[in-house]
Amino acid sequence: MIEKHILIFIGILLVSLNALSNSDSINESVSDRSENPVSSEGLLLTDESPLTKSSEAEQNNETIDGSTIEINNDLENSPAEETKGFDDFVEEQLEQQEVQQAVEVEQEEVITTSEQNEKEYSGEYKEIQPKINETVIIEPSSAVRLDYSAQKTIIVPYSQRRLKWGQFVGVSVGKVTPEEFSSDFLNDSYDSIYGGDSNLGAEVHMNFKRNFSSYSLGVELNFGYFKKVSDKDLIDSTLEVTFAKLGGVFALDNLFEKEAYIVPYISGGIYQMLYKEEQSAVSNNGTTQISFYASAGLMFDIDWLDPVSAKSAYFESGIENTFIFAEATIFIDSAEESDPNFGSTDLKAGIKVEL
Length: 355
Fold this sequence. Notes:
By secondary structure, the chain is α+β, with helices and mostly antiparallel strands. The protein has helices at 2-35, 50-60, 79-119, 158-161, 190-194, 307-317; strands spanning 61-64, 67-70, 135-137, 144-147, 152-155, 165-175, 201-211, 216-229, 238-251, 262-279, 282-287, 291-301, 321-331, 344-354.
């Protein structure tokens, strides 16, 4: 009986040992599966498996704006530290891209502005780097152009180079005929007493003007002088007159595309005369009251006749243009009854230069 119980105990012990052995095998299999997962196709994914490496590469790579950023995981860092380092790295990359985009935009704006500045011409002073076989503007841009291909300087046309302000100076000569003048020494007409005198009068012209697109407005100040000698058969006398004119001028001095070939103008203002009539040791002199005058004339540019001299005059003396002109002036008699009557129509011609 005892032997039977011993055999039963031994059998139970063997069954228990066998069960324990099977449990260990199952645990090892499960552990192997967790360490080496199986793919969806049933392949075992070990550490050396290509699929395992590809999955890890995809997990360790992040794409930002089309640019792949590789991240090396540090096994020694904690997950929180790894996440923080990744965020900082991404933020730094984004900032660098924003800076690069801003620089590119600024460079495009600079290039665009530079191209516009090279195309525009404001008349102000500027410098442009000279290029071979090109005509470029140099300082002052409103005056001179260099043609490097021809190795010569070219004056910019007057319509482009003229500045806001300008001035004229000139001289003229003409025949003054105050036909209504009455001599104090002989009761006869002016033409009878002084009409045979061939002496001409002279006048100095000064004009300060403000230029506009096609015309100019200015102020003129002129001084004139003439002397007449009587007919010796009638009387031995002389008449000297000095006068001053102050008025406004309107001139169409930019009608043409390039140069001021013809300039019509009108002017008007006030004048005053200082006169002296003398016979032997007797003289009669005085100053007239202020009265009015009006003038009209034409100026003709002559620079085209000699361009070389015109260019030299510009560089050496700052002469913009040289004109010959013809002018007619009407002097209105003074309202003062005691004044001699110098009312007349005078014709003159001369030369003017624009500075």
